[in-house]
Write a structure and sequence with these properties.
It is built from seven helices and seven strands. The protein is α+β, with helices and mostly antiparallel strands. The protein folds into two domains: 2-241, Beta Polymerase, domain 2 (2-Layer Sandwich); 266-302. The longest helix has 66 residues, at 200-265.
Protein backbone atom coordinates (compact mmCIF):
# COMPACT_ATOMS: atom_id res chain seq x y z
CA UNK A 1 0.00 0.00 0.00
CA UNK A 2 1.32 3.43 -0.94
CA UNK A 3 0.24 6.87 0.29
CA UNK A 4 1.23 10.15 -1.28
CA UNK A 5 1.81 13.43 0.60
CA UNK A 6 2.88 16.92 -0.33
CA UNK A 7 4.11 19.96 1.60
CA UNK A 8 1.54 22.75 1.40
CA UNK A 9 1.60 25.87 3.55
CA UNK A 10 4.36 24.31 5.66
CA UNK A 11 2.14 21.31 6.46
CA UNK A 12 2.12 17.74 5.21
CA UNK A 13 -1.15 16.94 3.47
CA UNK A 14 -2.22 13.72 1.83
CA UNK A 15 -2.72 13.67 -1.94
CA UNK A 16 -5.43 11.84 -3.84
CA UNK A 17 -2.94 10.47 -6.37
CA UNK A 18 0.71 9.46 -6.34
CA UNK A 19 1.95 12.85 -7.46
CA UNK A 20 3.18 14.08 -4.08
CA UNK A 21 6.84 14.52 -3.24
CA UNK A 22 6.52 12.23 -0.21
CA UNK A 23 5.62 8.57 -0.79
CA UNK A 24 5.00 6.19 2.11
CA UNK A 25 4.99 2.48 1.28
CA UNK A 26 3.37 0.34 3.98
CA UNK A 27 4.38 -3.33 3.75
CA UNK A 28 4.96 -3.05 0.00
CA UNK A 29 3.78 -5.83 -2.25
CA UNK A 30 6.20 -7.62 -4.61
CA UNK A 31 4.97 -5.36 -7.43
CA UNK A 32 5.61 -2.23 -5.36
CA UNK A 33 9.06 -3.49 -4.37
CA UNK A 34 9.91 -4.08 -8.00
CA UNK A 35 8.75 -0.55 -8.78
CA UNK A 36 10.99 0.88 -6.05
CA UNK A 37 14.00 -1.08 -7.30
CA UNK A 38 13.50 -0.54 -11.03
CA UNK A 39 12.00 2.95 -11.25
CA UNK A 40 13.51 4.65 -8.20
CA UNK A 41 16.81 2.73 -8.33
CA UNK A 42 16.66 1.72 -4.67
CA UNK A 43 19.03 -1.09 -3.84
CA UNK A 44 17.11 -4.35 -3.34
CA UNK A 45 19.17 -5.34 -0.29
CA UNK A 46 18.67 -1.93 1.33
CA UNK A 47 14.94 -2.14 0.62
CA UNK A 48 14.77 -5.55 2.26
CA UNK A 49 16.78 -4.26 5.21
CA UNK A 50 14.24 -1.49 5.80
CA UNK A 51 11.61 -4.18 6.48
CA UNK A 52 13.85 -6.48 8.54
CA UNK A 53 13.36 -5.99 12.32
CA UNK A 54 16.79 -7.52 13.00
CA UNK A 55 18.67 -5.16 10.69
CA UNK A 56 21.04 -2.60 12.20
CA UNK A 57 20.48 1.10 11.63
CA UNK A 58 22.77 2.61 9.01
CA UNK A 59 23.26 5.38 6.46
CA UNK A 60 24.27 4.70 2.86
CA UNK A 61 24.83 6.95 -0.11
CA UNK A 62 23.64 5.97 -3.58
CA UNK A 63 24.18 7.94 -6.81
CA UNK A 64 20.65 9.40 -6.76
CA UNK A 65 19.72 9.36 -3.08
CA UNK A 66 20.71 8.83 0.54
CA UNK A 67 19.32 5.72 2.24
CA UNK A 68 18.69 5.55 6.00
CA UNK A 69 17.66 2.49 8.01
CA UNK A 70 16.23 3.59 11.36
CA UNK A 71 15.14 1.43 14.30
CA UNK A 72 11.76 2.27 15.83
CA UNK A 73 9.55 0.78 18.58
CA UNK A 74 7.03 -1.67 17.25
CA UNK A 75 3.41 -1.08 18.17
CA UNK A 76 2.52 -3.08 21.27
CA UNK A 77 -0.43 -5.44 21.45
CA UNK A 78 -1.89 -7.45 24.32
CA UNK A 79 -0.72 -10.71 22.78
CA UNK A 80 2.94 -9.71 23.12
CA UNK A 81 2.96 -10.67 26.82
CA UNK A 82 4.85 -7.55 27.98
CA UNK A 83 7.49 -7.96 25.26
CA UNK A 84 8.16 -4.66 23.51
CA UNK A 85 9.82 -5.25 20.15
CA UNK A 86 11.66 -3.03 17.70
CA UNK A 87 11.30 -2.84 13.95
CA UNK A 88 12.99 -1.00 11.10
CA UNK A 89 11.93 1.47 8.46
CA UNK A 90 13.73 2.98 5.49
CA UNK A 91 14.03 6.61 4.48
CA UNK A 92 15.22 7.29 0.92
CA UNK A 93 15.95 10.97 0.34
CA UNK A 94 16.14 12.17 -3.27
CA UNK A 95 16.61 15.76 -4.42
CA UNK A 96 12.92 16.24 -5.17
CA UNK A 97 11.28 13.25 -3.52
CA UNK A 98 11.21 11.41 -0.21
CA UNK A 99 10.26 7.73 0.03
CA UNK A 100 9.50 6.05 3.36
CA UNK A 101 9.19 2.26 3.51
CA UNK A 102 7.68 0.85 6.69
CA UNK A 103 6.22 -2.48 7.73
CA UNK A 104 3.39 -1.25 10.00
CA UNK A 105 0.54 1.05 9.07
CA UNK A 106 1.01 3.88 11.57
CA UNK A 107 0.01 7.59 11.57
CA UNK A 108 3.45 8.79 10.54
CA UNK A 109 2.77 12.54 10.26
CA UNK A 110 0.12 13.09 12.96
CA UNK A 111 2.57 14.29 15.64
CA UNK A 112 2.73 17.99 16.53
CA UNK A 113 6.33 18.03 15.29
CA UNK A 114 5.00 18.16 11.73
CA UNK A 115 3.04 21.39 12.19
CA UNK A 116 5.75 23.46 10.43
CA UNK A 117 7.70 21.74 7.67
CA UNK A 118 9.79 23.66 5.16
CA UNK A 119 11.53 20.99 3.08
CA UNK A 120 12.03 17.25 2.59
CA UNK A 121 15.12 17.49 4.80
CA UNK A 122 12.92 18.81 7.61
CA UNK A 123 10.59 15.85 7.14
CA UNK A 124 13.51 13.41 7.53
CA UNK A 125 14.71 15.08 10.73
CA UNK A 126 11.22 15.29 12.21
CA UNK A 127 10.56 11.61 11.46
CA UNK A 128 13.73 10.71 13.38
CA UNK A 129 12.76 13.10 16.19
CA UNK A 130 9.31 11.50 16.31
CA UNK A 131 10.94 8.06 16.61
CA UNK A 132 12.90 9.20 19.67
CA UNK A 133 9.70 10.48 21.29
CA UNK A 134 8.09 7.14 20.50
CA UNK A 135 10.87 5.39 22.43
CA UNK A 136 10.42 7.77 25.37
CA UNK A 137 6.68 7.09 25.48
CA UNK A 138 7.29 3.35 25.51
CA UNK A 139 9.90 3.72 28.26
CA UNK A 140 7.35 5.52 30.43
CA UNK A 141 4.87 2.68 29.88
CA UNK A 142 7.53 0.06 30.68
CA UNK A 143 8.42 1.88 33.89
CA UNK A 144 4.76 2.04 34.96
CA UNK A 145 4.27 -1.66 34.22
CA UNK A 146 7.47 -2.51 36.11
CA UNK A 147 6.29 -0.60 39.21
CA UNK A 148 2.92 -2.35 39.08
CA UNK A 149 4.55 -5.79 38.77
CA UNK A 150 6.89 -5.06 41.66
CA UNK A 151 3.93 -4.31 43.94
CA UNK A 152 2.31 -7.60 42.92
CA UNK A 153 5.52 -9.58 43.44
CA UNK A 154 5.77 -8.35 47.04
CA UNK A 155 2.66 -10.34 47.94
CA UNK A 156 2.64 -13.04 45.26
CA UNK A 157 4.02 -16.57 45.13
CA UNK A 158 3.48 -17.08 41.40
CA UNK A 159 6.11 -17.05 38.69
CA UNK A 160 3.81 -15.21 36.29
CA UNK A 161 4.86 -11.75 37.44
CA UNK A 162 8.53 -12.70 37.39
CA UNK A 163 8.17 -13.90 33.80
CA UNK A 164 6.54 -10.57 32.92
CA UNK A 165 9.50 -8.73 34.44
CA UNK A 166 11.89 -10.89 32.44
CA UNK A 167 10.00 -9.89 29.29
CA UNK A 168 10.33 -6.21 30.20
CA UNK A 169 14.04 -6.66 30.84
CA UNK A 170 14.42 -8.34 27.46
CA UNK A 171 12.50 -5.48 25.83
CA UNK A 172 14.82 -2.90 27.38
CA UNK A 173 17.85 -4.75 26.02
CA UNK A 174 16.31 -4.49 22.54
CA UNK A 175 15.60 -0.80 23.07
CA UNK A 176 19.09 -0.01 24.32
CA UNK A 177 20.66 -1.69 21.29
CA UNK A 178 18.25 -0.03 18.85
CA UNK A 179 18.68 3.48 20.30
CA UNK A 180 22.44 3.08 20.33
CA UNK A 181 22.33 1.92 16.71
CA UNK A 182 20.29 5.00 15.77
CA UNK A 183 22.86 7.19 17.52
CA UNK A 184 25.56 6.20 15.02
CA UNK A 185 23.25 7.04 12.11
CA UNK A 186 22.35 10.44 13.55
CA UNK A 187 26.01 11.23 14.19
CA UNK A 188 26.87 10.27 10.62
CA UNK A 189 24.03 12.43 9.34
CA UNK A 190 25.57 15.39 11.11
CA UNK A 191 29.03 14.64 9.73
CA UNK A 192 27.60 14.49 6.20
CA UNK A 193 25.09 17.34 6.60
CA UNK A 194 26.66 19.39 3.81
CA UNK A 195 26.77 16.44 1.43
CA UNK A 196 23.12 15.60 2.07
CA UNK A 197 22.05 19.23 1.76
CA UNK A 198 20.90 20.20 5.25
CA UNK A 199 20.44 23.90 5.92
CA UNK A 200 22.04 25.52 9.00
CA UNK A 201 18.71 25.19 10.80
CA UNK A 202 18.74 21.49 9.99
CA UNK A 203 22.21 21.12 11.47
CA UNK A 204 21.02 22.81 14.67
CA UNK A 205 18.06 20.43 14.79
CA UNK A 206 20.48 17.52 14.34
CA UNK A 207 22.30 18.71 17.48
CA UNK A 208 18.99 18.70 19.36
CA UNK A 209 18.21 15.22 18.03
CA UNK A 210 21.60 13.95 19.20
CA UNK A 211 20.95 15.32 22.70
CA UNK A 212 17.44 13.83 22.82
CA UNK A 213 18.66 10.46 21.59
CA UNK A 214 21.48 10.38 24.17
CA UNK A 215 19.03 11.16 26.95
CA UNK A 216 16.69 8.47 25.65
CA UNK A 217 19.58 5.99 25.55
CA UNK A 218 20.64 6.77 29.13
CA UNK A 219 17.06 6.44 30.36
CA UNK A 220 16.63 3.06 28.68
CA UNK A 221 20.00 1.94 30.03
CA UNK A 222 19.10 2.99 33.58
CA UNK A 223 15.77 1.12 33.45
CA UNK A 224 17.52 -1.94 32.03
CA UNK A 225 20.21 -1.91 34.74
CA UNK A 226 17.64 -1.50 37.51
CA UNK A 227 15.56 -4.43 36.29
CA UNK A 228 18.61 -6.62 35.77
CA UNK A 229 20.22 -5.70 39.09
CA UNK A 230 17.13 -6.27 41.23
CA UNK A 231 15.82 -9.38 39.48
CA UNK A 232 17.58 -11.73 41.94
CA UNK A 233 16.10 -9.79 44.85
CA UNK A 234 12.61 -10.17 43.40
CA UNK A 235 13.13 -13.90 42.92
CA UNK A 236 14.14 -14.08 46.59
CA UNK A 237 10.97 -12.19 47.57
CA UNK A 238 8.79 -14.75 45.79
CA UNK A 239 10.71 -17.61 47.46
CA UNK A 240 10.40 -15.91 50.85
CA UNK A 241 6.65 -15.45 50.36
CA UNK A 242 6.36 -19.17 49.66
CA UNK A 243 8.39 -20.00 52.79
CA UNK A 244 6.13 -17.79 54.90
CA UNK A 245 3.08 -19.56 53.52
CA UNK A 246 4.58 -22.98 54.26
CA UNK A 247 5.44 -21.84 57.78
CA UNK A 248 1.86 -20.67 58.34
CA UNK A 249 0.46 -23.95 57.04
CA UNK A 250 2.81 -25.93 59.32
CA UNK A 251 1.70 -23.90 62.33
CA UNK A 252 -1.93 -24.59 61.52
CA UNK A 253 -1.24 -28.30 60.94
CA UNK A 254 0.70 -28.77 64.20
CA UNK A 255 -1.83 -26.67 66.11
CA UNK A 256 -4.57 -29.06 64.95
CA UNK A 257 -2.51 -32.21 65.55
CA UNK A 258 -1.76 -31.48 69.24
CA UNK A 259 -5.35 -31.39 70.53
CA UNK A 260 -6.25 -34.19 68.10
CA UNK A 261 -3.61 -36.40 69.75
CA UNK A 262 -5.07 -35.74 73.22
CA UNK A 263 -8.61 -36.45 72.10
CA UNK A 264 -7.51 -39.57 70.21
CA UNK A 265 -5.74 -40.93 73.31
CA UNK A 266 -8.96 -40.76 75.31
CA UNK A 267 -10.99 -42.25 72.47
CA UNK A 268 -9.25 -45.63 72.39
CA UNK A 269 -11.44 -48.67 73.01
CA UNK A 270 -9.48 -49.72 76.16
CA UNK A 271 -9.61 -49.02 79.85
CA UNK A 272 -8.60 -45.35 80.34
CA UNK A 273 -8.68 -42.91 83.27
CA UNK A 274 -11.76 -40.78 83.91
CA UNK A 275 -13.97 -42.82 81.61
CA UNK A 276 -16.53 -43.18 84.42
CA UNK A 277 -16.22 -39.59 85.59
CA UNK A 278 -19.27 -37.40 84.79
CA UNK A 279 -17.02 -34.51 83.67
CA UNK A 280 -14.72 -36.69 81.56
CA UNK A 281 -15.63 -34.82 78.34
CA UNK A 282 -14.75 -31.40 79.77
CA UNK A 283 -11.56 -32.75 81.31
CA UNK A 284 -10.42 -34.07 77.91
CA UNK A 285 -11.31 -30.71 76.29
CA UNK A 286 -9.36 -28.94 79.03
CA UNK A 287 -6.31 -31.12 78.46
CA UNK A 288 -6.55 -30.37 74.73
CA UNK A 289 -6.67 -26.63 75.44
CA UNK A 290 -3.67 -26.90 77.77
CA UNK A 291 -1.75 -28.78 75.06
CA UNK A 292 -2.49 -26.01 72.54
CA UNK A 293 -1.39 -23.33 75.01
CA UNK A 294 1.84 -25.20 75.76
CA UNK A 295 2.52 -25.59 72.06
CA UNK A 296 1.92 -21.83 71.50
CA UNK A 297 4.24 -20.87 74.37
CA UNK A 298 7.02 -23.13 73.10
CA UNK A 299 6.58 -21.73 69.57
CA UNK A 300 6.86 -18.14 70.80
CA UNK A 301 9.78 -18.91 73.11
CA UNK A 302 11.71 -20.49 70.24
CA UNK A 303 10.70 -17.58 67.95
CA UNK A 304 9.87 -19.96 65.12
Amino acid sequence: MVRSYSIENFRITQCADDGGEILVYVDPTPEERALLVNDHLIDAHTLQSSLDPDELARLEFEPEHAALIIKRPQNYSGGDQFLFRVSSYGIFLFKTRLIVVIMEDIPLFDHKLFTRVYSLHDVVLKIIYHTIHHYLDHLKVINMISDSLEDKINTSMKNKYLINLFMLEKSLVYYVNAINSNAFVIERLKNNATKIGFAPEGVEMLDDIIIENNQCFRQAEIYSNILAGLMDARVSIVSNNLNILMKTLNIITIGIMVPTFVVSAFSMNVEIPFQKHPLAFWMVMGLSLVAVLCFTLVWRFKKW
